Amino acid sequence: MNPQSSSSATSEITGGVIQSSPKVRIEKLSFFYGTHQVLKSVSMDIPALQVTALIGPSGCGKTTLLRCLNRMHDLYPGNRYEGSVHVQPDGMDILGPGMDPIQVRMRFGMVFQKPNPFPKSIYENVAYGLRLQGMNKRRDLDERVEKALREAAIWDEVKDRLHQMAHNLSGGQQQRLCIARAIATDPDVVLFDEPTSALDPIATSKIEELIVELKKRVTVLIVTHNLQQAGRISDMTAFMYLGELVEFGSTNQLFTNPSKPQTEDYISGRFG
Amino acid sequence: MSCDGGFIVLPEHFFQRQKKQAHQRRAIDRWFQRIGFLLTLMTLGILGILLLNLAGNGLMRIDWQFLTSFPSRRAGEAGVLSAWVGTLLLMMVTAGVAIPFGVAAGIYLEEYAPKNKWTDFVEINIANLAGVPSILYGLMALGLFVYQFRFGQSVLSGGLALACLVLPIVIVATRESLRTIPANIREAAFALGATRWQAVWHHLLPYSTGGIATGVILAMSRAIGESAPLITIGALTFIAFLPPAPVLSHPPFVSFEWLFSPFTALPIQMFNWVSRPGEDFQPNAAAAGLILMLITLSMNGAAILLRKRAQRNIKW
Amino acid sequence: MSPSRPFSHRLNQAVESFMVWVLRFGGWLSVLVSLGIVVTLVTESWPFFAQVPFHRLISDTMWTPLFADPQYGISALLAGTLVTTGVALLVAIPLGTVLAIYLSEFAPTRFREVVKPLLELLSAVPTVVYGYFALLTLTPLLQKIYPDLPQFSMLSAGLIMGIMIVPYVTSLGEDSMRSVPMLLREGAFALGDGKLGVALRVVFPGAFSGLAAAYVLAISRAVGETMIVAIAAGLQPRMTINPLESAATVTAFIVQVSLGDLPHGSIGYQSIFAAGAVLFLMTLGFNLAGHVLRRRFHRAA
Predict the structure, then answer these.
(1) To the nearest whole angstrom, how far is the Cα of B37 from the nearest Cα of chain A?
(2) Of the candidates B193, B196, B217, B200, which has an alpha carbon nearest to the alpha carbon of residue B310?
């Protein structure tokens, strides 16, 4: 009775909203770095408008999986994908032949492990993605920039210095700026790659609150090696080990009553 | 836009616009890739054009007669004998001064000197010297070596001017190659009781010969091609004699007279021939230029290969 | 443990102190050279500046200090330097920057490793050879396009000088760009930008002080160049900013006078040191600026 994959995500009721189909369907995804296989035929359905956490020990492939979704691996030579990843509602096949990675990346937002604001002003950082998508009228940009900064819970701290350089902000603020930058373009899905691992506890909790707010409007996939964090903010959790998806289910279930022994070992700290 | 139980279904044209933008960006990238590649080939091609140009005009002029004749007012009889001998003698002086002092300076700055604002000053100084125009070294040599020290307009003055010019190159090359040696090699030597000099002489210098040699070759290549400083100190362009030989067939077997002799050099000779109106001397100039190019290109090429091999061989 | 050990130890110490002395001398040699340059320039040009009224350096329009009725408008020489440098930079900066972006952001690693040293060869060509090429090959070519071009022109010399300087811009520029961390680029790629966009919008501003250092050092190199302009741009000082004319630069003037008779202390002798002093101040300014910019870049990185 323990759902291991969410192909029947219809049966999951979270926050009172019934999802009709998964947001991202991953089918038999394998990833090769040169001849070395890093992901082994991973299949899972990521539900829409929920926070899905990817957990697992170092080297299990969780970050690799995340970066497959927005084709970041394409930036480096020697990589190969197998399998398919479809995004709803249009069914776009991210890994399809002839699929333009640039087009894929415009649908996803990504927040990285270390904050990486551009060497530009706070305003221009957030406006970057908007300009890329063709927005150039000052008033439209102002509106969207403010909206994104509010949603990232940083507007009040920066509204008086929008045109100052971004690197003057503290680490936690920089990361929230990067979140604003990622959500400014209204992506379908936002990918978080261990976003708080370089931050202090106060900054971390601000961002965790932010993510829980965000899921009302975007689907969130977050890689984290902090089990407590996964427990705090995610609705669904996927446990990966050595490139394979070991278990995938609701967070409550996975943490209190995991069905695979490996999952239990990891969660109870027997290895990690 | 329609709402559907928590979903926001985006209209088709939004995706179309993103698709078009993505397509445009890819196209721009492809174009830049092509243009960059072409420009790179064109720029490198200029090197080839230079060589072909010189060879076309001057290759047939190079023969035994050309290499063993003095300059002459008749283009057909003019040769580069005094020029290449002069270059050779100059290089003996330049190398003899720049290499030991440059390496010594590099060792001192890298291994001995404390890190304070004086050494900072010395570093800034070296960086500035590397950017001082070569003709200013000639002016210094004119005032200092030619007149003040009374060396006259001689091989010694010229060689010293060039040595000062290339000194920064040797210093920097020495420092950089010493810097790549990891700290634990030094520490191992000290732990065995070596003095600092012993550590340098027995352990560090042997490992950095590759890098130092590279720097020395580049420095000498630069010195061979320089003409501005030599013109300034009064290197003559019409020398129909050779400086006295350094070795003698009778005791004391070594002479230093040549150091104080007037001289000319390959690039000076080429400059002289290029500056003449009319076409007569152009083949001579091209021939001299070809010889210069071949020398400098092969030296630089050797230095590059040496550097690559040193990097590949030494894996800490 | 041989009983002579204390002696060999003392010998070692002696060698050590001797070598330290030798090395320290070497270390300060570079300072001596700098001092030599500065002191020589100052003492030998002092008589010139002492007897020429300062206002004439600025107000005279011709530079003929060796004539019977001498004119001291050094701006005639400065104009020549300015124009040839300007032409050279118009070639070297755009071309060098495009090549730097291409090699850093677009070209495959193997290609870049082969091309970089080859490009540096371009700056190793003896400048007399470049001068030859400018005068005897490029100028006739340009004359086919523009028949009124004189035999000596600042355009021809400037173009070749630009080619010679490209490696300075490309090499330093590419090094600066490559040291911008990949993480920064990934942020831009993740938003859907393309390679050129990332290069121009993220890498270029991120590498800016390094690039600025490269540009400033290129300017310094162009200002100090001697043989190319002496051979191809002409040796007659002329107050003009038209690159299609011939004119002497500060450096070409020094060459021209040196080719003649130069008795110690004569007016000609003093005038070349005066020109040299001006040249030194200009390049010192650029070199220091370049050094500061490069330091700032390394600190920011």
Answers:
(1) 19
(2) B217
Indicate the domain borders of chain A.
22-107+221-272
- Closest to A195 measured CA to CA, from A220, A216, A169, A161: A220
Q: Is B259 helix (H, G, I), strand (E, B) or coil?
A: helix
Chain-chain contact of C192 with A102 (C-beta, under 8 angstroms) = yes
Closest CA to C42 of C223, C280, C288: C280
- Domain identity same for B31 and B148: no
As its CATH architecture, domain A22-107+221-272 has: 3-Layer(aba) Sandwich (3.40)
DSSP H helices, B180-204, are: 183-191, 196-198
* CB < 8 Å from B in window 75-104 of A: 89-90, 92, 100, 102-103
Tell me whether residue B70 is in a domain.
yes
Instruction: Note the pLDDT tens digit of each residue in B170-197.
Output: 999 999 989 888 888 888 888 887 777 8
CB-based contact (8 Å) between C196 and chain B?
A: yes
* Residues pairing with A238 in the sheet: A54, A248
Strand A13-14 with A236-241, pairing: unpaired
Burial class of residue A205 (count of CB atoms within 10 Å of its CB; 0-12, 13-18, 19+)? middle
CB within 8 A of A15, min separation 6: which ones? Answer: A50, A235
Instruction: Specify the CATH class of C64-300 in words.
Output: mainly alpha
CB atoms within 10 A of CB B246: 14
Q: Is B105 part of a structural domain of the chain?
A: yes
C-alpha distances in Å from residue A38, one per residue of A81, A138, A165: 10, 45, 39
Nearest by CB to residue C27, choosing from B108, B222, B237, is: B108
Q: Is B71 helix (H, G, I), strand (E, B) or coil?
A: coil
Name the residue among A105, A116, A118 with its Cβ closest to that of C192: A105
Domain count, chain B: 2
Q: Which chains have 3 or more CB–CB distances shorter than 8 Å to chain C?
A: A, B
Query: What CATH number is associated with residue B299?
Result: 1.10.3720.10
Looking at the domain assignment, is residue B193 inside a domain? Answer: yes
pTM: 0.88
Q: CB–CB of B21 and A49 under 8 A?
A: no
Q: Which residues of A touch C186 (CB under 8 A)?
A: 72, 75, 110, 112, 116
pLDDT in tens, B254-298: 778 888 888 899 999 999 999 888 888 999 999 999 999 999 999
Indicate the length of chain A as a whole number: 272
Domain that holds residue B50: 12-58
Distance CA B26, CA B32 (A): 10
Do B47 and B67 have their domain in common?
no
Measured distance CA(C269)–CA(C271) in Å, rounded: 6
- Residue B248, min C-alpha distance to chain C (Å): 32
Residue B276's contacts (CB-CB under 8 Å, 6 or more residues apart) are none
B91 and B50, same structural domain? no
Pick from A70, A72, A75 the residue to mutate for testing the C interface (most C CBs within 10 Å).
A75
Torsion, Cα of A75, A79, A85, A91 (10° steps): 50
Question: Residue C131 corresponds to which amino acid?
Answer: G
B196-248: per-residue pLDDT in tens? 788 888 888 888 888 899 999 999 999 999 999 999 998 766 677 787 877 77
DSSP conformation letters of A130-171: HHHTT---HHHHHHHHHHHHHHTT-HHHHTT-TTSBGGGS-H
Handedness of CA A146, A147, A148, A152 (dihedral sign): positive
Mean pLDDT check: name the lowest of B117-131, B149-163, C167-181. B117-131
Judge if B54 and B190 occupy the same domain. no
A132 lies within 8 A of chain C by CB: yes
Residue B4 falls inside a structural domain: no
Complex ipTM value: 0.90
